[in-house]
């Protein structure tokens, strides 16, 4: 792929960046994919101002018109599907199957979903309230105290305003689409700050929206490798809400700024998902589910079941199956047929994951699979899928998010102990339970402090609310819950 310079997208115009450009690197080959623009602080604030100016007209646009634009954008994205998948793969290092099926295809599907979402009812009628005479109320019509009245009420969802969308690097299509599409469907305008590692796909999304007829300023994209760009996108006085996907540490800093400005927040942060495996579980099913940690985005996914908490009666059997599973995974060029595990996003992140594996060794964990850098390919940022056993709850590899193809295993004896180990975490995004006893599986699920629980599956229902407990986030999105997330309730009351 030939390197090309990109420009910022502000107020419907492609704008030269004040800070020049920086290289976007293919994690699989270390080749330059393209040159991403580096926005200045002033340009980020200019983008927010453009979104503010566009908000009034866009928020008053008929829902069917917003729906039509989102639908057309999906068609434009689908038209150029192959090129988009190629770019997404080059930026993120995803396997071909993932780039096509889980990145671009999901991005397109989300635009189509929220085209329909724009037409969902925003009004909710409430039962009338009868105020008896002499209750001390004031009738707006008569201004007389004590008059009886029947008050009607309507709850209406209104757009929040200007939304800053800060996206994650692990999926440059699905993650931005999951923010931009529902925000626009509800009548908000957006400033998108893509992850610095793979921002080029987001500019393609903006181009599709422009071609589909999105008015100038409704969508703005500003990128940069400097933290200053993200800071400006959060602290701009024109921004009403920040939607962020990324690490808990960065989310906490964003929340502090939002708190000072009383800005709405939607935070999808870190995860350290527990997979509680009981001795009556289908072990092959459990291994297949846990194994997605290794193969899906090379472990760079916050929903991964990275802590395996397994009942002692099947501990050795599960470890043996997981070890055998790892041995069947092909690590290498994500463009090659048969590759299951591609690279992680950067050299720095590869070094971070490897440092955690070495830390696990020092803490007393046993490396039963992986643990060494793959000998091939010669270039690229590859990490071997790694399994750590003999772990204890106090180990950092058990408590901290590694965000790579690394799984830790801990034993338990009784149900209560398994639940306690699962909940012994700062995180609470998605946990999992495997058991042949459905009643027990659902009982345990109800005790887990996580925003979602998979029972005998790692599958996701894309209409179910998504978000975390504890340090895994604030708020919920996906399905109609995303429309709610990008709206505020307004109460309209009248005397009838």
TrEMBL record:
InterPro entries per record: Ald_DH/histidinol_DH, Ald_DH_C, Ald_DH_N, Aldehyde_DH_dom
Domain annotation Aldehyde dehydrogenase: ranges: 14-491
Pfam families associated with the record: Aldedh
Domain of life: Bacteria
Keyword Manganese: no
Alphabetical UniProt keywords: Oxidoreductase
PANTHER family the UniProt entry points to: ALDEHYDE DEHYDROGENASE-RELATED
Name by which UniProt lists this protein: Aldehyde dehydrogenase family protein
Originating species: Streptomyces mooreae
